[in-house]
Amino acid sequence: MRSLALAALLLLATVAAAETADEAKIRRAALDYAESWYAGDPEQIRRALHPDLAKRIAKGDGVDHMTAERLIASVAVVYGKKTTIEKQLKNVKILDVFGNTASVRLEMSGWIDYMHIAKFGDDWKIVNVLWEMKPKT
Questions:
Q1: Which one, of 71, 51, 73, lies nearest residue 118 by Cα?
Q2: Average per-residue pLDDT in the chain?
Q3: 10 Å Cβ neighbour count for 65?
Q4: Residue 66, Cβ neighbours under 10 Å: how many?
Q5: Which residue from 103, 115, 109 is spatially nearest to 87, judged by alpha carbons?
Q6: In principle, which of 5, 106, 113, 116 could form an S-S bond with 131, CB 3.0–4.6 Å?
Q7: What's the whole-model pTM score?
Q8: Residue 75 backbone dihedrals phi, psi, to 5 degrees
Q9: Domain residue spans of the chain
Q10: Are 76 and 69 in contact (CB under 8 A)?
Q11: 20-62: per-residue pLDDT in tens?
């Protein structure tokens, strides 16, 4: 009986460790996205994105859509480098993980991104982003 209980505990510990490793990779994808913006590093953001990324913002009655390539190109223009280090916000909150999918909230200096991140092999990639600008203060 004791060996069965020990085996169950070891199994739970193994599952918890796997979830922790996945959560670290999910967080890393979100941070690569944020840090690449501030650094103007297109290769860093490319690592975080799935090539079929859809990034959207609701505007009036429509939706502005950005592809992975358009987002990578905008990072290369280095808009984010205008943000001083003390104002560089990159708060990642993993909202939910289920199987090979995760929902993440990323707060940046000027906006908030709600991301869907999916697992492909051993990597987690950002597939969808719905974002909203913060009000000007």
A1: 51
A2: 89
A3: 10
A4: 17
A5: 109
A6: 113
A7: 0.83
A8: -65, -40
A9: 2-133
A10: no
A11: 799 999 999 999 999 999 999 999 999 999 999 999 999 999 9
C-alpha closest to that of 29 among 51, 55, 48, 45: 48
Amino acid identity for residue 123 in this structure: D
Q: Check residue 80 and report its DSSP letter.
A: G
- The tokens describing 57, both together, are 């913002």
User: Hunting for tokens 């859509």 — which residue is that?
Assistant: 65
Token pair listed for 132: 């909203």
User: The dihedral of CA 15, 17, 19, 22: what is its sign?
Assistant: negative
Instruction: Give the HSE-up count for residue 108: Cα atoms under 13 Å, Cβ half-sphere.
Output: 22
Residue of 79 and 70 predicted with greater confidence? 70
Strand pairing class (90-98; 101-108): antiparallel
What architecture is domain 2-133?
Answer: Roll (3.10)
